[in-house]
Design goal:
mainly alpha, 60% helix
Length: 105
């Protein structure tokens, strides 16, 4: 009877066990969330405008909408909305060509 090589432990997220032993602290997670929020605020200000429009009936919504529109204007002045617009137009072109991939296609 030949010996079987040891099997790797079964995991569902494909993170190798040697990497699973290291990680970050709760402060590190918070820092990553703050950085991600700032990056989204810089490069996705166009979506922030449309997102705040969904809450038109909420208390303080008009103030929030004015602030977000000012922010979007500042980001446009810095040229930081161009990647968003380029990506949006590329996706629109792909959809127009028939590349949808949705459940109704």
């Amino acid at each position: 009877m030949s010996e079987q090589p040891p099997r790797a432990p079964l995991v569902t997220d494909a993170i190798p066990p040697r990497l699973r032993r290291t990680g970050t602290t709760p402060a590190g997670v918070l820092l990553m969330c703050v950085i991600g929020t700032l990056v989204l605020g810089l490069f996705a200000s166009r979506d922030l405008v449309t997102w705040t429009q969904r809450f038109a009936d909420a208390p303080g919504a008009p103030t929030a909408q004015r602030l977000v529109q000012k922010w979007d204007g500042w980001m446009a002045g810095l040229g930081l909305v161009e990647p968003h617009e380029t990506l949006r137009s590329a996706v629109a072109r792909l959809v127009d060509m028939g590349w949808g991939g949705g459940p109704n296609d």
